[in-house]
Amino acid sequence: MSAERFDARACLLGEGPLWHPERQELFWFDILEKRLLSRKNDVQRDWQFDRYASAAGWLDRDALLVATETDLCRLDLTTDALDPLVPLEAERADTRSNDGRADPFGGFWISTMGKQAQAGYGAIYRFYHGALRQLVSGLTIPNAICFAPDGSHAFYADTLPGKIWRQPLDRHGWPDGVAELFIDHGPGAGPDGAVVDAAGHLWNAHWGHFKVSMYDTAGNALRDYRLPARQPSCPAFGGPELNQLFVTSAREDLGAAATDHDGATYVIQTEARGQAEHRVIL
Prior knowledge:
This protein has strands at about 5, 15-20, 25-30, 35-40, 45-50, 55-60, 65-70, 70-75, 80-85, 95-100, 110-115, 120-130, 130-140, 140-145, 155-160, 165-170, 180-185, 190-195, 200-205, 210-215, 220-225, 230-240, 245-250, 265-270. By secondary structure, the chain is mostly beta strands.
């Protein structure tokens, strides 16, 4: 189950992979280059924005919800029109959007962080039925937003302290009680983006460690999947059988140490089956 290069376009900060279940197409971002990329078979596309963008959810076959540094928008994939839906820390020039994913209830969770990764600037929001509400504050690099298959829990991480939390949810997908510490890696482990498969296993990319790790429902490590890129950033399941794990990566801060592997997007054939990405309901 070795990682193969899926797309060689080098991203300075690849993030936010999304497998669109109706289009059978992978979308992902290069945050620092303000770009959205996609690939379906041998067809590559890209969109250039005027501001940082980092994560997406699918609205229908021809539209995405896109999170930028100032707002959540609707991107029409046929006309390329980008229309604002709701502001996201638009009054703050020192923050941007980061990790995000749709929940099983039709909501969309999106994190923000300081553009210089300032301590405590990070937050997590939920966009649900047209309204945006802050759920968590005081983080630094919020990541790993993903959801249990039955909708009972959400997960999120703060990369610098190396912690991943599990947040119980109510029947409408809102936090219900206090978040529980799920995995405490400690500083330096670099837990970045994550996804949960159909069996409830959490798959977490480790920034700086050439790997994606798989954990059981109790947080026990089961297996590491190695990549040739030093800074894997986020995984997403896709493919016709949802058994392909796509992983973005980054060249950011590597300088002369960067290789042709860094910044590319990879695919791993797995024995697991992922969840189909949930649709965002406006």
